[in-house]
Automatic annotation (TrEMBL):
Keywords: Autocatalytic cleavage, Decarboxylase, Lyase, Polyamine biosynthesis, Pyruvate, Schiff base, Zymogen
Species of origin: bioreactor metagenome
GO molecular function, one term: adenosylmethionine decarboxylase activity
Entry cofactors: pyruvate
Record carries keyword Lyase: yes
Name this polypeptide is given: S-adenosylmethionine decarboxylase proenzyme
InterPro entries: AdoMetDC_fam_prok, S-AdoMet_deCO2ase_core
Gene3D superfamilies, sorted: S-adenosylmethionine decarboxylase
Length: 165
């Protein structure tokens, strides 16, 4: 497999699986150059008629009490869905597990009509990893900032991937 990387576009050339011979994934993160602001990100999504987009939010130096509270994580899923104007499908699923410190903590799944919100909370390192995937537009930076504030994080990075085939 050949990988071509530009500022915001990754092209994976594959031998089989796709008639055109390639899979395109548009990714923007602090490591690929300037992130688009919310309006630019939404405009790109709409103008290019993508099926969906995903925002991955990495939070560092979170408040340990908040990321280790099942109630707080459950409320986060409900409040985030409301904040980004998504319709929840069912209640959040929040489960604590992990056989070693690196993976011990809560994981979250919240189905939404347009896809899902998920999260993993690493108590050992006070970090949280949130993913929001939807075929309905929302503000990526707004969602990331909301998540940062909700968990009292001192550090935050986020990336955007436009999904289509």
């Amino acid at each position: 497999m050949e990988v071509i990387v530009s500022n915001t576009e990754l092209i994976y050339s594959v031998v089989d699986g796709n008639p055109s011979g390639e899979i395109r994934m548009y990714v923007m993160s602090p490591y690929t150059g300037k992130l688009l602001d919310d309006k630019e990100a939404i405009d790109k999504y709409n103008n290019e008629n993508r099926w969906g987009f995903e925002v991955a939010v990495d939070l560092g130096e979170c408040d340990l009490k908040l990321i280790s509270s099942k109630e707080h994580i459950t409320n986060f899923a409900i409040d985030l869905a409301k904040h980004i104007d998504m319709k929840r499908y069912g209640e959040p699923i929040v489960v604590r597990f992990g056989s070693e410190p690196k993976v011990e903590g809560y994981s979250l799944v919240q189905l939404i009509e347009t896809s899902m919100i998920s999260g993993h909370f690493a108590e050992d390192t006070n970090r949280a990893f949130i993913n929001i995937f939807s075929c309905k537009e929302f503000g990526p930076k707004d969602a990331a900032e909301f998540s940062k504030k909700y968990f009292g994080a001192k550090k935050m990075e986020y990336s955007i991937a436009y999904r289509d085939i």
